[in-house]
Amino acid sequence: MSSSLRACSALFFGLCCWMLPALTFGQSYVDSLTQALPTAPDSSRAFILRELFWENLYQDAPRAITYAQQLLDFAQPRHDTFEVARAHHLLGMGHFYNTRLIDANRHLLTALDLRQQIHDTMGISYTYGALGMVSDNLSDYPTALDYYFQALDVLGDKAQPDDYAKTYTNLGIIYKKQGDFPLAKSYLQKSIALHADNHDSVGVATAQVNLGILYKDEDQLDSALYYHTQSLQFFEAQNFTRGVAICIHNLGVVDCKRKDYDAALAKFRHSMQLGEELHSDELRLNNLNEMARTYRDAGKYVHAIRHAEQGYALAQQMGIKKEGRELCALLAEAHAALGHYSQAYQYQAAQLALHDSIFSEDKSREIGRLEARFEAQAQARTQAAERTLLEKEKALQTAELQRQRTLAYSLGAGLVMLIVLVYVLFRYSRRQRGQNETLIRQQQAILEKNQQLEQQQHEIVRQREALAESNVTKDKFLSILAHDIRGPITTLTSFTNLLAQYAASMSPDELNELSLEAHRSTQNLQALVDNLLKWAQSQSNRMTYQRQPFFLEPVLATSIEHLRSVAHQKQITVTLRDDGDACVLGDIPSLQTVFRNLLSNALKFTPPGGQVNVTVQTTEADVTVAIRDTGVGMKPEVLEKLFRIDARHSTKGTANEKGTGLGLVLCQEFVRKNGGTLRVESQPGEGTVFCVVLPAATVPAPAES
Question: Which position has the higher pLDDT, 482 or 569?
């Protein structure tokens, strides 16, 4: 069973256990609610907005979010905390189904805080369950487990067997994702038993499907067949076509693992037919995927290619890259087995491109998960700090009340004793003033301590923000490093594997093409490693800069000569205009790196037959080196991100040359270290000019012989 269908089954059967979905009454019901909303009285407006939210949530999440926001705008001016909390909960669910997990987590935490203030036990339990869903999708499984257990704990004696059964299903799914099959199996079996005692057939079937998938993953095929058959019988009795299609598909996967390929293919065809009746592209894609794999395992490569090509086209249409990558790998394998090496090479290249795209998206999602987790922790710490401040304020108020009581008692006693003896009153008054002064000093000390605590808290927040910014920069740098090194190495490995396996049957043109691609990958890897080493030395302050006066013309000429072969290959004319008198103050090795990178970029984005002109202009204060090309140019949005490591942009050259992604960032860093500036001007189709402005220096004295 493919990973996407497993995710679909888990989402379909176990994800929404803690939220009661709205009943669907048809389009006429939605239309009547929409028409009634503008003129609805305040007493029914909130109900209509909630109903419209649930009716739109699963088909049009953005529209559902607008209704939840209207509910919040309606409840806030009325200071209805219960309805405000419910609106934040609905906003959290809307953003969850719109895959905006950070916003979902923020609204749900706000709803939880409001419901705790008004002691809404049932609402608190629902919000804990929703937070568990968000944490599950953020792959923060320990936090998800904690939220689910808290959802039960807050209900206490009010928790029903159905609440436990649904929670056990969710816990089983999470433990399965964590790879703890025994514990997942235990919770799913408990869920089945509780649902059966409660006469909840839907809950039993839900847990049976997940338990069948778990047994299949453990290769306990008889048990998997049993549970899938039980759930299939239930869905057939209920005429639930989607559930029937998923169960038949799962049974086909079991047959495939038993190598009963004919039976498996028959079930996949049946499941795909049901998917077409439901107009479900997802079911069609998963069945095409499994049929292609089954034909490949059976050695029927022609049939495997036909089904894989249909699935690949559908995956491209749906924008599902992981399924597309798996199908490209299968197509490359099948074509290679049939001796179609050109087609195998094309699909392998497509697989590599999809792999790189998926890797980048996974890193972006991981950064989003980390940001969401950090925001949740920061909000929790802020709430804890607010509660601490409230407790301190209460302590101050208690101390003040105690002081007032003591003062009143002392004054009363003094008045009584005044009648008896003036001297005693005088002594008592002095002692009372001393006590008052002591209390005032204590109060002042408490206020000063509070100020110190607030300053310490501000300092901690500042340090945390600085640390978070540093961690984000480090993570993005490591993401660049992992992606850019993995790309050339993966490409080089793929080409060498093709050469090792099929070199004897390849034509000279194919061998020459693969050799050139391997050579380019090696050159890209060498350039990447050089720039990475220099960048790492610069960031760790281990790179020394020896600034001294020197003539600029020999350094530029050397850099041009270093790239002369590249210019010759692309038939590009490189000219240098310098009268030879320009003298600058700087570090020669780092500036050589800057000029080589800028010249390499100019050659990379200039088409054959173009020109690259290097000019030097001198003033009393500085020297400007302009490197101008007649290349493709850049758009304004590309220029804005050109020197930012957190918005890295790498584009292929006119001959499909690949960039390292760090060259321009490295150039800007080295120019800044040498006391200069780097600027760029470009228009699409009109070329680009990079200007390096360096401080001018007096002519160095000739060395003694």
Answer: 569
CB burial class (10 A; 0-12, 13-18, 19+) of residue 27? Answer: exposed
Q: How many other C-beta atoms lie within 10 A of the C-beta of residue 399?
A: 14
Average pLDDT of the residues in 345-350? 89
Q: Nearest CA to 373 among 135, 94, 178?
A: 135
Where does the pLDDT of residue 527 fall: very low under 50, low under 70, confident under 90, or very high at 90 and above?
Answer: low
pLDDT digits (tens, 9 = 90+) for 221-246: 898 899 889 888 888 888 888 889 99
| DSSP class per residue in 359-427 | HHHHHHHHHHHHHHHHHHHHHHHHHHHHHHHHHHHHHHHHHHHHHHHHHHHHHHHHHHHHHH-HHHHHH
Task: Give 592-627 as a DSSP string.
Answer: HHHHHHHHHHHHHTS-TT-EEEEEEEE-SSEEEEEE
pLDDT at 26 over 90: no
Q: How far apart are CA 108 and CA 130, in angstroms?
A: 8
Q: Which structure tokens are listed for 140?
A: 């923060």
Among 10-19, 93-102, 436-445, 553-562, which is the least confidently predicted range?
Answer: 10-19
Q: Are strands 611-618 and 548-551 parallel, antiparallel or unpaired?
A: unpaired
Predicted confidence (pLDDT) at residue 21 exceeds the cutoff of 60: no
Distance CA 212, CA 648 (A): 45
As a whole-number percent, the residues of the chain with pLDDT over 90 amount to 28
Question: Contact, 210 vs 188, CB < 8 A?
Answer: yes
Task: Pick the more confident residue, 380 or 692.
Answer: 692
Long-range contacts of 362-369 (CB under 8 A, 24+ apart): 363/479, 363/482, 363/483, 367/472, 367/475, 367/476, 367/479, 368/101, 368/102, 369/101, 369/138, 369/139, 369/140
Strands (DSSP E) contained in 113-216 are none
Q: Using 50, 70 and 90 to split pLDDT, how confident is the model at 651?
A: low
Q: Using N-to-C axis directions, what is the helix angle for 241-257 and 261-277, rounded to 10°?
A: 160
Give the tokens for residue 655.
Answer: 């001959």
In 3D, which of 141, 147, 192, 130 has the Cα closest to residue 165?
Answer: 192
**Each residue's pLDDT tens digit, 245-304:** 999 999 999 999 999 999 999 999 999 999 888 787 888 888 999 999 999 999 999 999
CB 75 within 8 A of CB 84: yes
Cα 273 to Cα 276: distance, rounded to the nearest angstrom: 5
Strands 622-629 and 611-618: antiparallel
Distance CA 152, CA 150 (A): 5
CB contact set of 479 (below 8 Å; sequence gap of 6+): 363, 367
pLDDT at 589 over 50: yes
Q: DSSP string covering 107-122, please?
A: HHHHHHHHHHHTT-HH
Element (H, E) at 692: strand 688-695
Q: Indicate whether 526 pLDDT > 70.
A: no
HSE, side-chain direction, 13 A CA sphere, residue 369: 15
Rounded to a whole number of angstroms, the CA Rg of the chain reads 35
Angle at 510 between CA 504 and CA 511, to 5 degrees: 60
Joined together, the tokens standing for residue 536 give 């790492």
* Most confident among 153-167, 571-585, 653-667 (mean pLDDT): 571-585
For residues 203 and 7, the answer to whether their CB atoms sit within 8 Å is: no
The total number of residues written for the chain in this structure: 705
Residue pair 622/693 in contact (Cβ under 8 Å)? The answer is yes
Coil, strand, or helix at residue 284?
Answer: helix
Q: In sequence order, what are the beta bridge partners of 611?
A: 573
Residues 415-430 have pLDDT tens digits of 777 787 777 777 777 8
